[in-house]
Amino acid sequence: MIRVLALMLMAAPAWAEEVMPSIVAPPEEGSVSTADGLAAWERVHEVVSHPRCANCHVGGDHRPMWSGPEYPQARPHGMNISGGDSRMGIETLPCATCHITGDSLESAPHAAPQAMIPWQLPPVEMAWYGLDGAAICRQLRDPATNGGRDWVELAEHLRDDASHGGFVAWGFQPGGGREPAPHGLQAHIDDVLKWGAAGQPCPE
To answer: How many other CB atoms are there within 10 angstroms of residue 115's CB atom?
Structure first.
């Protein structure tokens, strides 16, 4: 058993130590107070509204955004980029033309971002760029607009995407001198679970 575990660790990608382990350990439902749930939501909102997360959570125009401290003002992605109905840009210019799918999350400053899964925009029903915290909260607790997930499955989605070196992992470790999303992956998963155990309360 120890030998198998050692081989698994040797086979893990180099970035894994930085984004793993991330675990989903749900508190008992109802064990977190509404006040603590709302406090957890505020931290969740700081993550999902951060440019590393929000810039691709766009609506039916399929146009990712450029925003954040490196931009004087928010604006649509340069070069008239559109994800199209495919949300991968295959109708015009695929995201993968510039956004690299590689074997790590590392990228040099001013180089194209690199993740370990093919680049694409999230489903249009998960658009929240520019929405306030209350609206995003209602969206994320509604299975019709969150990918059909309950609160535990939302946390599992974060863990599972990150385990493949996907965009969740990239958001916390974007490389190239980019500002990462705050708090860290495990803290974000824990806050989603605290919010869920409190009944997914939303600010007024």
So the answer is: 25
